[in-house]
Design a protein that fits this description.
Layout: H1 3-40, H2 48-80, E1 95-98, E2 101-105, E3 110-114, E4 117-122, H3 127-132, E5 140-143, E6 146-153
Parallel strand pairs: 2-4
Antiparallel strand pairs: 1-2, 1-6, 3-4, 5-6
Length: 154
């Protein structure tokens, strides 16, 4: 078992947790700001202009609330991961070294630099995540007409 891969997986997991916690905090602060603005808002003599502004603010608040719900779902996925466990086949929580790069099946964060490596943090429901799921070390999978050989996984 490759200790470097295990250490990298742990580092990636912690990065994902910090990133999601930061996003949750920012979105909650935005919602708090909307609430404070609504509490301070007084009806102006502009009438329709006031109502339009309130409606737009309400739509923005709904967008932020929806984003917060999505990020909280990602947090639940991270809470289910056991980064200290090694895998024998690709599943949620696997760090997969392929001939085309490194993939961490967790949440969709895109390209991340960790441990001197470039890693793609992907969801198992992403198109490439679905192709990788269930594959074992030394297997080969095809995605977008490209072959990916699985060189290592933890």
């Amino acid at each position: 078992m490759n200790q470097d891969m295990i250490d990298l997986k742990q580092e990636l997991y912690l990065y994902c947790v910090r990133e999601i916690d930061s996003r949750i905090g920012n979105l909650r602060n935005s919602l708090k700001g909307f609430q404070e603005a609504a509490n301070e808002e007084t009806k102006s003599s502009a009438g329709d202009k006031y109502e339009t502004g309130r409606a737009m603010m309400h739509l923005e608040k709904e967008k932020v609330a929806h984003s917060l719900n999505e990020v909280l779902k990602q947090k639940k996925v991270l809470d289910m991961l056991k980064p200290e466990l090694s895998k024998t086949k690709v599943e949620l929580g696997s760090l997969v070294k392929t001939s085309k790069g490194l993939f961490f099946l967790s949440i969709s964060l895109g390209q991340v630099k960790a441990g001197g490596e470039t890693v793609f943090c992907i969801s198992p429901v992403s198109p490439i995540g679905q192709v990788l799921l269930g594959a074992e070390k030394s297997a080969s999978v095809t995605f977008n007409k490209m072959d990916y050989s699985i060189l290592d996984l933890v």
